[in-house]
């Protein structure tokens, strides 16, 4: 039937089909759930009742006035701080492994390998590492005389940094590979010319490497910020928000509000607040980095 049509009509139908199918999927699985999320945030739906009573802005008022809800946001700062250090380490290793180092492909694989592991499996793995009595980390520290009874996951002061260090181990190799790809796109002739002109390694990094990977740094910082704000699996598996809620993240609070207390309206409002917060933070990051890029 299609063959009977003119070439222009066939072309129009094919192009329309290729555009319509992904657009329909996008509307079904992205925009409609987002719209429904906004709608539920103004109700007190319990997840089971067929009726959804409209309560206006009450859920949002509770989010910002209840310290137990909005007060968990500072717990995410540790993941952001460690994420910045992680990016610095990733750039460092990318530069080293982009050189003529013997065995560099093995080291690239070694550093990237943690990223392909399942997040829950990684959490259980480090549960044995950070165990207070029989953990391998405390055993190592005890063997070298630095103490062997540190409660890495039981101290309110640094439990979030302990959990964030697991993310450092897992995601640093991923960021390194992205930076490595960016470094390999820089022509080697530029470095040779800079060496001839007397530029040392530090000057080459500041004036050649850094400007050429600036957009990639911006991308990785985007991933770092979103990852820090949306942490869930590590604290959920290892501490379940403890001790005394010290490691509970905002996403954990959303999940418990919805599935434990059956308050889907409030959980939806919290999700909208998180979405807006992520957009604002990334907008500020984009503005600051774009000014730095100029």
UniProtKB/TrEMBL annotation:
Domain of life: Bacteria
Alphabetical UniProt keywords: Cell membrane, Membrane, Transmembrane, Transmembrane helix, Transport
ABC transmembrane type-1 domain span: 76-285
Matching InterPro entries: ABC_transporter_permease, MetI-like, MetI-like_sf
Annotated localization: Cell membrane
Main localization category: membrane
TM helices/strands, residue ranges: 12-32, 77-97, 109-130, 158-182, 264-284
Membrane topology according to the record: Multi-pass membrane protein
Keyword Cytoplasm: no
Signal peptide positions on this chain: none
UniProt keyword Transport, yes or no: yes
Family statement drawn from the similarity comment of this UniProt entry: Belongs to the binding-protein-dependent transport system permease family.
UniProt name for this protein: Carbohydrate ABC transporter permease
Lineage: Bacteria, Bacillati, Bacillota, Bacilli, Bacillales
């Amino acid at each position: 039937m299609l063959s009977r049509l003119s070439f222009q009509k066939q072309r129009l139908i094919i192009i329309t089909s290729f555009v319509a199918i992904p657009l329909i999927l996008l509307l079904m699985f992205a925009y409609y759930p987002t719209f429904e999320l906004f709608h539920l945030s103004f109700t007190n739906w319990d997840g089971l009742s067929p009726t959804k009573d409209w309560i206006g802005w009450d859920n949002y008022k509770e989010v910002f006035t209840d310290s137990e809800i909005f007060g968990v946001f500072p717990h995410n700062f540790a993941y952001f701080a460690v994420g910045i250090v992680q990016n610095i380490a990733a750039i460092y290793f990318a530069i080293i492994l982009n050189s003529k180092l013997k065995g560099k492909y093995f080291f690239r694989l070694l550093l990237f390998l943690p990223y392909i592991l399942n997040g829950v499996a990684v959490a259980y793995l480090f549960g044995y590492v950070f165990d207070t009595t029989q953990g391998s980390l405390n055993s190592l520290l005890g063997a070298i005389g630095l103490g062997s009874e540190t409660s890495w996951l039981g101290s309110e002061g640094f439990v979030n940094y302990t959990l964030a260090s697991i993310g450092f181990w897992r995601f640093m190799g991923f960021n390194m590979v992205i930076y490595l790809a960016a470094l390999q796109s820089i022509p080697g002739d530029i470095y040779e010319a800079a060496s001839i002109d007397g530029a040392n390694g530090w000057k080459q990094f500041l004036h050649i490497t850094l400007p050429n990977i600036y957009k990639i740094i911006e991308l990785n910082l985007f991933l770092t910020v979103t990852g820090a704000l949306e942490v869930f699996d590590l604290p959920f598996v290892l501490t379940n928000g403890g001790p005394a809620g010290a490691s509970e993240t905002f996403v954990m609070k959303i999940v418990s509000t919805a599935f434990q207390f059956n308050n889907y309206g409030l959980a939806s409002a919290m999700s909208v607040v998180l979405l807006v917060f992520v957009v604002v933070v990334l907008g500020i990051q984009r503005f600051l980095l774009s000014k730095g890029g100029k």
